[in-house]
Amino acid sequence: MTQPLPPGIELEPHALPQAWQGGFEAADGARYRLLISVPDGPAPMRGFPTLLLVDGDALFATAASAARLQALRPEATGVGPAVVIGIGYPSEKPFDAERRQRDLLPVPDGADRFLEMIVGELLPAIGRIAPLDPARRTLIGHSYGGLFALHALFTRPDLFEAHVAGSPSIWWQDRAILAQEAAFRRGGTAGGRLLITVGAQEQRPDRAVGPQRAERIAKARMRDNAAEMAERLAASPRVACSFAEFPGENHVSVILPMLSRAVAFALAGTAEDKVAAA
């Protein structure tokens, strides 16, 4: 990457082509691991579409590879180049349990703070590295990250054009997110696009599980909660909602097909973008 880096961002090459990784320090002193993939070549006239993934340590590599591969065959996929951003943590664990709970759950000093950091600090900083189209950015998350994507849509629908809620933890706090959903559906303006996904085996596993695990699965209702919310939202004029259930996939294995579908959903039609003149 030859562009000067904004203050607070330190990057080095990632193993993937046209990708970098490094540190980012927020204004409140919190440090994050930043992963970014920038297409090789001129940007569209409007700037690049953006895919932003929370739990970036776990999701970035797959999403960046899927975006790059789909953009290689635009005539077949309809997908054009995009900037892919993953937000992770310095621990470099796939999922940092303590920090993701603080950042992703709608609790005091939690999801709202993290969301404001993303749109107020991180995206403007990356916009100084690569031109981004503010009207075409997608927020993608899995599990607690899926709940975070729903919270962002229901409370700040103007921030992202599209949201992908993979296996969202709707069960959290006795389904407290449903109150936000109801208030959102009563609102007036449209909220863009939403994709909700789930693995069929998240609620109905094809192997025997112990009684304690079975009780947790039954209480979480991962598939039914997701499908019921998608049905309600699809009937609402507030958002164009799609639902995808992946047969044979559990709460972990579903991440790969979810991300492939998320890329196609978020970047549909971007192959028609006009490239800026040199």
Protein described:
- The protein has 278 residues and is α/β, with parallel strands linked by helices.
- It has a single domain, classed as 3-Layer(aba) Sandwich (Rossmann fold), CATH 3.40.50.
- The protein is 38% helix and 22% strand.
- It has ten helices and nine strands.
- The chain has a nine-stranded mixed β-sheet with strand order 1-2-3-5-4-6-7-8-9, sandwiched between helices.
- A hairpin with a 5-residue loop joins strand 2 and strand 3.
- Helix 5 runs parallel beside helix 7.
- The longest helix is centred in the N-terminal third of the chain and has 17 residues.
- The chain is globular, with a radius of gyration of 18 Å.
- The protein starts with 8 loop residues before the first strand and ends in a 12-residue tail after the last helix.
Level-2 CATH architecture:
3-Layer(aba) Sandwich
Helix/strand-derived category reads alpha/beta
- How far the N terminus sits from the C terminus, by CA atoms, comes to 19 Å
Q: How many helices in DSSP terms? A: 10
Number of strands: 9
Residue share in β-strands = 15-25%
Helical proportion, percent range = 25-40%
GO molecular function, one term: hydrolase activity, acting on ester bonds
Family: Belongs to the esterase D family.
Protein name: Esterase
Keywords: Hydrolase
